Amino acid sequence: MEITYIEALCGVKRKLLLPDGDELVIHIPGVVKAGVEWRITGRGLPHKPGRGDMVLNIIIKWPKKALTTTGWSRDLKLVPTTLIVARNVEKITSQQKDIWSSVIKSFL
Question: Which of 2, 38, 72, 90 is deepest in the core (most CB within 10 A)?
Answer without folding.
Answer: 38
